[in-house]
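Minimal example, chain plus nicotinamide-adenine-dinucleotide.
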Amino acid sequence: MIAGIAKEIGSNERRVAVTPESAKQIKAAGWDVILETGAGKGSFFEDRAYEEAGASLVSSAAELWSRSDVVLKIQPPLPNRALNAHEAELIREGAALICMLRPLSNIDAVKILARRRITSFSMDMMPRTTRAQRMDALSSMSTIAGYKAVLIASDTLPKILPMLVTAAGTIAPSRVLIVGAGVAGLQAIATARRLGAVVEAYDVRPAVKEEVESLGAKFVGPQLSEREAQDEQGYAKAISPEAQRQGMEMLQQRVAQADVVITTARVPGLKAPRLIPADSVARMKPGSVIVDLAADMGGNCELTQPGETVIRHDVTIHGPVRLASTVPVHASQMYSRNVTAFLLHLTRQGSLHLDWTDDITSGTCVTRDGEIVNAATRQRVEDAATATA
Ligand code: NAD
């Protein structure tokens, strides 16, 4: 059976799904491994290193997709302009695909995958359980994004982050506010603290207070019970209007005091919550910086332009959409370890052995046997069809 490592074709995508180190592991588990020439180039993994790991090179995307029994990649299938075909049409009928499919945002690709009887797995739907931790690519990419967001902010800020006591007098430390203390937010707190900033963090989940404080930051969120604020998976859920109003008031006060605001708040499957309205941006100090890590889901700040940097009311607002790709070596290494752990979880003696009673296998599966098996995705497709009708 052949595992194929596809070259990413998304704009500004420099990562590769599998590094040579992981290719070797996949080969050792009994798979033949093929790689599209140059797939690792953007992250500085040379073709030669893959060959040394036991992979074979193929020269075209068409060959890679059509020969593979399972295709491994990062981005969801996209239209391949050079081949004038959608990647979901290139994969051999009945084969498998593992990527960050984000099915709720990519229903066109999902419909093609179902029609072509592809068994597709979405790495971003990995259950948040201890057993699945090694395969949790969402956490890996959030870790990178949280770190890089602080570097972008400090590079833009017309101040330094740490307090300095010098012959020229004392420089006060900058104040960084992190909104959303999940995986990305906690990494942003740790990075900003290492750079010497005074850090505060806001979240609706009370469970994060302790983690925030253990990283040396102050927790400034509303006082909600765990049941009000989060679901069984540990994700935030929509909160009551009154709790929302109180939290928002508290948040806007903190935003006005901050030099840097890094927002990471998300609610799975929904648009990102709007937490920083335009008039709050107008009340920030001139020269302040916002990095909105929820830009790809519409943004936490009203003035965010996804994929762009804009200046409004003398505040620079970054809306990066693919931050992990700007750190391609380590982002690829982490994703590769996650996706390889997942592939090996699905492997018995060099081929796929799919146990649908296993929560990792069934929880990540989006399409199989010609059906959309993920309920939320099926509902989204039905809603879209009704809206069109
Ligand atoms: P996420 O990306 O979905 O959300 C980021 C943060 O935004 C979360 O902390 C969330 O509470 C917060 N948020 C959502 N709405 C908000 C609002 N209106 N105002 C303020 N903050 C808001 O979350 P994530 O980082 O992917 O993970 C969430 C949690 O899941 C983690 O903190 C962790 O507890 C848990 N987790 C568990 C595992 C595991 O057990 N294997 C792995 C990863 C994460």
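The chain has two domains: 2-125+328-388, 143-321. The longest strand covers residues 32-36.
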